[in-house]
Structure formats: structure tokens, C-alpha cells
Amino acid sequence: MESRKSLQFLVLSICVTLVLVVTWVHLPSSPNKVFLDCTLSSAWCSSKNRIQSSTKPNNLIKKPQQSSSTTQHQQHDSDVPHHPLDPLTVQEFNKIHAILAAHPFFESVSKYTLNTVSLEEPDKELVIKWKRGDPLPARKASVTAMVKGKSHFLTVDLNTDEVSIDEKSSVVSGYPTMAMEEMVGVLDVPLKSIEFNRTISQRGVNMGDLACLPISSGWYDLPVEENRRLIKVQCYSKKDTVNFYMKPIEGLTVLVDMDKKEVVSISDNGRDIPIANGINTDYRYSVQKLNGDFRLFNPISLEQPKGPSFTVEDGHLVKWANWEFHLKADARAGIIISQVKVRDPETSELRSVMYKGFTSELFVPYMDPTDAWYFKTYMDAGEYGFGLQAMPLDPLNDCPRNAYYMDGVFAAADGTPYLQPNMICVFESYAGDIAWRHSECPITDLQVTEVRPKVNLVVRMAAAVANYDYIIDWEFQTDGLIRAKVGLSGILMVKGTTYDHMNQVPSQEYLYGTLLSENIIGVIHDHFITYYLDLDVDGSDNSFMKVNIKKQETLPGESPRKSYLKAVKNVAKTEKDAQIKLKLYDPSEFHMINPSKKTRVGNPVGYKVVPSGTAASLLDPEDPPQKRAAFTNNQIWVTPYNKSEQWAGGLFVYQSEGDDTLQVWSNRDRPIENKDIVLWYTLGFHHIPCQEDYPIMPTVSSSFDLKPVNFFERNPVLKLPPNFKDDLPVCKAHDSS
Length: 737
Ligand SMILES: *[C@@H]1O[C@H](CO)[C@@H](O)[C@H](O)[C@H]1NC(C)=O
Ligand SMILES: *[C@@H]1O[C@H](CO)[C@@H](O)[C@H](O)[C@H]1NC(C)=O
Known about the structure:
Elements: H1 8-26, E1 34-38, H2 90-102, H3 104-107, E2 112-120, H4 124-129, E3 140-147, E4 150-157, E5 163-166, H5 180-185, H6 194-202, E6 210-216, E7 230-237, E8 252-257, E9 262-268, H7 285-288, E10 310-313, E11 317-320, E12 323-330, E13 334-343, E14 350-365, E15 377-378, H8 380-384, E16 404-411, E17 417-429, E18 434-439, E19 449-453, E20 456-465, E21 468-477, E22 482-490, E23 494-496, E24 513-517, E25 520-523, E26 525-535, E27 541-553, E28 563-571, E29 588-598, E30 604-611, H9 624-628, E31 636-640, H10 662-666, E32 675-687, E33 697-709, E34 731-735
Antiparallel strand pairs: 1-34, 2-3, 3-4, 4-5, 6-7, 7-8, 8-9, 10-11, 11-12, 12-13, 13-14, 14-15, 14-26, 16-17, 17-20, 18-19, 20-21, 21-22, 22-33, 23-25, 24-25, 26-32, 27-28, 27-29, 27-32, 29-30, 30-33, 31-32
This protein binds 2-acetamido-2-deoxy-beta-D-glucopyranose (2 copies).
One 2-acetamido-2-deoxy-beta-D-glucopyranose binds next to helix 6.
Transmembrane segments: 7-27
Keywords: Copper, Disulfide bond, Membrane, Metal-binding, Oxidoreductase, TPQ, Transmembrane, Transmembrane helix
Protein name: Amine oxidase
């Protein structure tokens, strides 16, 4: 999140190279070294990863700047949609490209950018009614485009070739998600400036060592921002390390007009700040192992003697254990999970839990108000495209053996499709955890020990938004729980400083962070990830119920006890009743219930959102970044379902003014009781960097759960069998030579 795509080419090639290198190092493709012998059967032990590979690369689909010959991937040329929610196919992208190129709106202008092209999902009722074998509802595409410096939102009907231009898009502020080519395209602009070149050489950096990032400039209601799309370019030196982020050219900021591709101004305030030496910042295994082998444990992997237990039908429909859902890649959201259903063990019926869930927006404000830092308040989904930044996953390290890999197919700025290979993985995870257990102690004379192992299904993506890596997991448990988990890793955005020891820092000087190494400060920042959760618990019409846990004091003489806790239920009538700030000393449970579906004993069926470790934004609500990211003002919101309210920061987030956020919609205070409603949850992190985060951060994770509450009649995994010794193989490695 934080900063950005540097020389796109550079970063991409690094990523691709890394993936290949690591794959080579770790794939069990050197059978002459180590064999696994299994007492159960040996065939499965040598089974390969289910990584999709094709025999020949496809020349039609090419990711910009990436040589397709270095990436193995599946052919997608002949993909056809099977489900109303299936993403646009290569053929459909090509058709949209042709329709738009010939349309008078685009034909008349010499230059335009298609910023996003994605499926416009059919109306929810149509999708819910649709059954396999039915004809698909009309296929349509939503397009955001920049034409003559203005934002546009269009819909293309693939059946009729009709294009409709939504005039409303000129009413809201902001610009569409940057196209990859736009992010890359601005990086050469500073080179047009003699002043920039002079500064770079004065700082002792060779032009050939320059690595620059396109940094979204936010919006601060300044005259310079009016009627133009701006971006800030900051640079690093990649001399002697791939970890150029640790060598900032501090204080140098080039303000660039993104559409005219010209320098607006240069601010150069760090001339006396040395560039950190970058020694020992290279994190690559190939470099680390030169200093000795640091293996702390023996090789470990998950063995599945009978193979994995999930299937992916027609490319997108995932079925595992008692779960079924539709899964797809999206350029803006990353992963979209739809029509999530769980099978009821009592009735065998597939019951609806969630119509759609995805990461709607991110907000990453840095806590340094000075010239070269104040604007760093990233909104990664709407500005950079969370899915666009999701790099290919690394088999055996990002996802275990037997994982299934799904590609993303996205549109380049001219509308032609390209491939984001192995962007999402699906796998079963067994971490030695327990699903439920009980053993009887000697107090009773019953000899009982019953334990069930916990196996989950994980859907994963890792977005590397320049320096930061976000690991996004959706974890499905057999007991009906869904865990949404975010892992943060990657590299800090650091600030150059003249100090190389804390004893040089005057006591009155505040560093805005932690001195991590000589001449480098890790700046304090927050991460917020806002989820769109269109829960449909046993049907679309639901209510949001706050179950407040309150202290009740007993009456004098009523009980030897002075106090106890009680659960006070309140159903939210309107949106403002459901604007929730979490409070440790005034706790509540948050239930999404279906008031018209009751259990045998009469409780309304429900799912609850269960927060865990999280953080709230403490910025002033009138601070421009906070106004733009007003969706982080509460941790929970509930809005009536509205097809055009899916992006928490608004349709156009880049340089937006905060006029189209979840806060604005929710303030309409519409009725939400017993209606089709959407729950929004924001997971937050405060990050005060520490030395362990240098030069690359060990993963920090947090999560929240969607947990059944009176949804099932009883424990839904009661009938789960335990592990039996004979079901599990024992594999032993031996040297084959
Ligand atoms: C700045 O340096 C680059 C790289 O050496 C060069 O291509 C460019 O022409 C220079 N710009 C100016 C204005 O001199
Ligand atoms: C749906 O959302 C759009 C965008 O916020 C808004 O203009 C419209 O009024 C909303 N419709 C309803 C019924 O709330």
C-alpha cells in the first residue's frame, strides 16, 4: 500500500524473477536428491502441485511490460462464462475493446484511457434465481475511462453492443483507479527536468540507479489540484541492493500532471540528508544463504493421501466439505466471493450465508505532516487497484502443495486483455488445531476422550502494493465460521535522516517514527481494510441486531452477588443505529438475523460479525484524508443493499473530496430493518515500526469472523470423524542416490 509501483518494469521483473528463482529452489523437481516413501501408498507422495501450466504461452494475452515467455499459464482464449457472476472473458474483453474503439464518444478523441473494465453483475434477483443450465442473463461490462482529463462511467451491453454513458459520473469528485500504464507512464516525466537531473547527481545517485514510485497525491483542497489529475514521484537508489526502499532520496518530491505528463513543481528539501548505505538490506535467499544456512526446522508439508477434497467447477464454483461459493479475481477488489452457501447437516439443504464479500477499500495514512510525507494517505483499492497489484503466488511458500491456482484476466489501458497468472490460490489447511474435544477426568468414572481435528479451506491472494504486501485470506471452517484475515508483510516506507544513532537526536525533536538503522526512520502509519459483506442469512431480508452486554446490579437482599451481566437486544431501525464504534468496556455482539426464519425452539437464525484485534482511525474527521476515508469513522456500518454503493470510498477515489463515501450514504439514515442489507467491517492496524521490521517485515496478522449464531440447530460438526492412524500415511525422506 504504501508507496507505489516503481519503475513498473523493474518491479515486475523483480517479482517475476523472484518467483521463478524461488520456485526453482524449492520445487520438488530434483527427484534425484530426496524421495518420500510412504507406508500407505507412494504414488501420491510424488504428486506435483496443481499449479496451472500450459504447454505454450499465449501471445494474445500479454501483461504490460511482462514477457509472457517467462510465465507459464493457462490458455484463456476460449474461456466462456458459465455463471452469471463469472468475470469477463478474453473474448468479451476483445469485443468490448472493439465496441468502444468504434463508438463516436471515443472515436472522436485521439487519446483515452480505459481505467477499469469489469463485469457489470446482473441484478441480484436474477443471479439468485438463475440455475445451472439456464441461459445466462445479459452480459454487460462496467467501464471507467479518462477522456480529455475527465472521469467517465460507462456500461457496455455485450448482447446489443449498446454503450450507455452515465452522466452521474460527472457529479461526483475524483478520478478512476489508475491504469497500470498510467502508473508506469509518469515515472519518466521527472527526467524531462534539468532541475531534477541536477538534484539527482548532486545527491550522488547515478541515473542508472534511480528507482522511482508513483505516489497518489491525495486531495487537500489546494488551488493546484483544481481540474487536473496529479501524482507525486519520489525516488530511491537501487545501488547495491534490490531493497531500494531502504535508500530513499529524502525530501525530493516531483509533482506531475498525470494527463499532460509534465512536471508541475519540484520540491527538494532533503539535500543535506545522506542516502542510507543499504548494506545488508537484500532479503533474497540467494544472497542470505551466502552467510550460512539458517534452517531452524526440518522440511514440513501437508500430505493428503487421497488428494484435496475441494473442487472448482467451471473455473469459479468452489465446493468443499459443507461449503459452496463463487470465486473470482477483480482488478479493484482483488478477491470477490459470492453466493456463499453452507450445507445444513440436519436437512442437507444448502443455505445462503453471504451474497457477496470483498475488500472494498483500504486506507493507509502516514503520520508525518511534513512536506515530503503529508500526502501519503493511500487508498489502495480505488487508487492503485488491489487486484492489479496481486502478484503471482509462489507455490509451496505462498500456498501449500495441492493448492489450486486461479488467474485474473484484466484489461490494459487500451482495453486489450492480459493475464495476471496464479493470482489466487485455494487450499485446505491443517495446522494441528482442534475442531472440538472433550475428555472425562477421573472425577467421573467415564472413560471418554473425543477429539476432532480442524481442517479449513483457505482462499488467498497476496497484493504487493509496491513496498507493502497484503495477504488476504478467506478461511472457511466446517463449523460454519468464515474468517477474514489480513497479513501485512513486505517492506516499510522509510524516511531518510541525518541521524545514525538515537544519542544524536535532540530531546525536543520528534522523528515521526523509529530509527531503524543508520539514516533511516520507519514512519508511524495505520492500515485500514474495509470489507463489503452482503450477508444474506437464509434469504435476502435480514435485520441487524446489537446485543449489548450490560452490567446489571442486584437489588439489596436479592442475591449474595452484587452484579451480573445480561444481554440486551436492540434491532437497528435505520442506518444511524448501525454506525458502530467498538468499545471494550461497553461490549456488544453484532448479529445479522433473519427475523422470518426461526430455529426449532424459536430463535431467529443469524450470523454474527466477531471483531478481534483492531484499530480505529484517530485522525481529525475534518482532516482531508480522513474525510476521503470517512468509511473508517466507524468499525461497523449497515446500509440498505444498493448496487451503486459498493466502493466504500466512492466510485472515483483518486483525488476524491469525500463526497461519495460510505459515511455520506449512511448519513441518509435509510430504514434497514427486515430488508436486504449490507454490513461493512473495517479491520485496522496501528503500526509503530520497530527494528525487527527492517529490512523486511515478519508478517503481522489480524482478522474478524463471521460466525453462525443460532443458525444451525446444534453443533454442525458433531458427526465429524476423528483421525484414525490407518488413514494417515507416514512419509519418510531418504536419499535416492
Ligand atoms: C535527465 O537524465 C536522463 C537520464 O540520463 C536523460 O535521458 C534526460 O535527457 C535528462 N534530462 C534533461 C532535461 O537533461
Ligand atoms: C443508491 O446509491 C446511489 C449512489 O449513492 C444513490 O444516488 C441512490 O440514491 C441510492 N438509491 C437508494 C434507493 O438509496
